[in-house]
Design brief:
Blueprint: E1 16-20, H1 23-26, H2 47-54, H3 56-61, H4 75-89, E2 93-97, H5 100-103, H6 114-129, E3 133-139, H7 145-151, H8 158-174, E4 180-184, H9 194-198, H10 207-231, E5 236-243, E6 246-248, H11 253-275, H12 282-288, H13 297-305, E7 310-315, E8 319-321, E9 331-334, E10 337-340, E11 346-349, E12 352-354, H14 356-370, E13 374-378, H15 395-414, E14 418-424, E15 444-446, E16 458-460, H16 462-472
Parallel strand pairs: 1-2, 1-14, 2-3, 3-4, 4-5, 5-7, 6-8, 7-13, 13-14
Antiparallel strand pairs: 9-10, 11-12, 15-16
Helix pairs in contact: 4-6, 8-10, 10-13, 14-15
Length: about 475
């Protein structure tokens, strides 16, 4: 009998190589053309920002010298030149977000702001002019500030109605220009940062309130999926998580169980969005954590009937879990995800360790769990770049991406159905966690410092030409 040959998969011909930005970290122009304030607009820079994220009342009660989101990198006014650069880079897609407060300045109005809608018309048209597909996140850590102040953020069911109205407006307006939509950025981050991800304005919000807010986001996401399919069935709706496999520190069964439980927490909400119901372990988890949710029969039906088309995720590093209290004193924290320090990994700065093989492991773990097409919408290295005479030699960034793309290719060979890959911050932008500019991710350097000073001129880094070749060869030359 003739043996059947196994054909290893390469990147698809239509694989979406791209970059990623967020409105609140790039656009600036924070009150231009009728835009309202977002929760991000009251956050300062540096340690004061870190304190504000943990203690939102501190941000509400203070007036700071500098608010990074107010000008950001001024993408709002400079998007044409930036898109020209991204076209030169060869991007097939750009993941970005719509600022909810540009469309509904307070969030709870009945009618949208036409000037805000026109901006995104122009932005999407400019991208399509260069054959760059917009991948749009509907809510990327920028709930309108009024909704936090008036309703306490997503803990109030009123926000479901507000979000639904917002989604219907943008779906009707842009369905011929946008195919792939992501309902919430890193939805599991509400457990780590309730203010940033859920607009919950109180310090030390209890777990029941956080999970209730997340439940309201899940219902809102399902209703958005339902609306999108009614308006234009060709649109694809995805969910997104902040991902990273959780390893046990040792082969001690207690460490393995601890890692399993931490991993379950990561996938909790994505399970609902993909499978239409809370995971089988939820009942015990809620009981042991003293979490009490109100879930109506109607909401349960909405979740069950409106599951997503694809799973998007960010990956920066893996995590390590143990029951050893001494080891747990040596923590490293990046992207708001605390972990025991892994002795086998190199530090990348800013509380992250570099784990390229963990990328492949994570991709496989997610695909095995959900069996839906995957879209990697954030991956990258935040680093301090040295700007000398208009040049930035960032070999460390090239090395980081090369190692991760190699492992992504291995995951494709494993059989994972992968839609695309968008590197985070393809143009330098302000950090969500610290508001800094020094933590740079881009292939394009923006002349701006942590205090908002600089020319804002754009300069191509060495990594620009490197990623250009990667895209040109569809990942064959890395």
């Amino acid at each position: 009998m003739k043996k059947r040959r196994i054909q290893l998969q390469k990147f698809k011909a239509d694989f979406l190589w791209g970059g990623a930005l967020a409105a609140n970290q790039a656009e600036g122009a924070y009150l231009a053309d009728g835009k309202g304030q977002s929760i991000i607009d009251i956050l300062p820079v540096g340690q004061k920002r870190k304190r504000s994220l943990k203690d939102p009342q501190y941000a509400f009660e203070q007036t700071f010298d500098y608010y990074p989101s107010h000008q950001a990198i001024d993408f709002y006014h400079r998007y044409k030149e930036d898109i020209q650069l991204l076209a030169e880079l060869g991007l097939k897609c750009l993941r970005l977000s719509i600022s909810w407060a540009r469309i509904f300045p307070k969030g709870d109005e009945q009618e949208p702001n036409e000037a805000g809608l026109k901006f995104y018309d122009a932005l999407f048209d400019e991208l399509l002019l260069y054959d760059i597909e917009p991948i749009v996140t509907i809510n990327h850590f920028d709930t309108p500030l009024h909704l936090a102040e008036a309703y306490g953020g997503w803990q109030d069911k009123k926000l479901i109605e507000c979000y639904q109205r917002y989604c219907e407006v943008i779906f009707l307006r842009y369905h011929t220009k946008v195919t792939h939509w992501i309902t919430f950025n890193e939805i599991n981050m509400i457990l780590r940062n309730p203010f940033l991800a859920g607009g919950l304005p109180k310090t030390d919000t209890d777990r029941s309130t956080i999970f209730q807010a997340a439940h309201h986001q899940l219902v809102a996401s399902a209703l958005a999926t339902k609306a999108a399919r009614k308006i234009d069935p060709t649109m694809k709706i995805g969910c997104m998580l902040a991902a990273g496999s959780v390893y046990p520190y040792t082969c001690n069964p207690k460490d393995i169980q601890a890692a399993l439980e931490k991993s379950r927490e990561q996938y909790f909400f994505i399970d609902v969005q993909v499978k239409g119901t809370y995971p089988y372990f939820a009942e015990r988890y809620f009981e042991e954590q003293d979490i009490h949710l109100t879930i109506t029969d109607e909401e349960a039906a909405i979740l069950a009937e409106n599951t997503v088309d694809f799973v998007a995720f960010s990956y920066y590093t893996s995590r390590l879990e143990t029951v050893d209290h001494e080891l747990k004193k040596n923590l490293i924290e990046g992207n708001a995800m605390a972990s025991v320090r892994n002795p086998y990994l190199k530090d990348a700065g800013w509380g992250r360790q570099i784990d390229p093989l963990g990328f492949r492991i994570t991709i496989n773990e997610i695909y095995q769990r959900y069996q839906l097409p995957l879209f990697i919408v954030e991956n990258g290295l935040g680093a301090e770049d040295e700007f000398t005479a208009g040049q930035i030699h960032d070999e460390y960034r090239i090395a980081y991406f090369r190692q991760h793309i190699e492992q992504m290719a291995e995951a494709v060979k494993d059989g994972v159905d992968l839609i695309g890959y968008t590197t985070w911050g393809c143009i330098d932008l302000i950090s969500a966690g610290t508001g800094e500019m020094a933590k740079r991710y881009g292939f394009v350097y923006v002349d701006l410092d942590n205090d908002g000073r600089g020319s804002m001129e754009r300069y191509k880094k060495d990594s620009f030409a490197w990623y250009q070749k990667v895209i040109e060869t569809n990942g064959k030359e890395i």
